[in-house]
Amino acid sequence: MQVQALAAEDRAKLAETLLESLQTPIAEIETAWAQEIEERVAALDRGETQAYAAEDVFAEARRLIR
């Protein structure tokens, strides 16, 4: 393979560039989370779902895995 012929430093730079090209920009992720939060709050307001205390959720999870 031609990539293996590159110097280690060049392969590392190439790998970093390739990985960065696969990552979603942070602003895009933040926008998606903001939209998700708005949708969840709206569902709560419409009575379509209910909220549970984190302590209760974690206690139930611990109970289920024992």
Shape: elongated
* First-to-last CA distance: 50 Å
Report low-confidence residues grouped into runs of 5 or more: none
Tell me how many strands there are: 0
Overall tally of structural domains: 1
User: What would you report as the Rg, rounded to the nearest angstrom?
Assistant: 22 Å
Which oligomeric form is depicted? single chain
Q: Topology, pairings included?
A:
Layout: H1 8-22, H2 26-45, H3 54-65
Q: How does this model look, in words?
A:
The chain is mainly alpha-helical and 66 residues long. It has one domain. Helices cover 71% and strands 0% of the residues. The chain is built from 3 helices and no strands. The longest helix is centred in the middle third of the chain and has 20 residues. 0% of the residues are buried.
Spell out the key features of this protein.
66 residues, elongated, single chain, mainly alpha
Short description:
The chain has one domain. With about 70 residues, the protein is an all-alpha fold. It has helices at about 10-20, 25-45, 55-65.
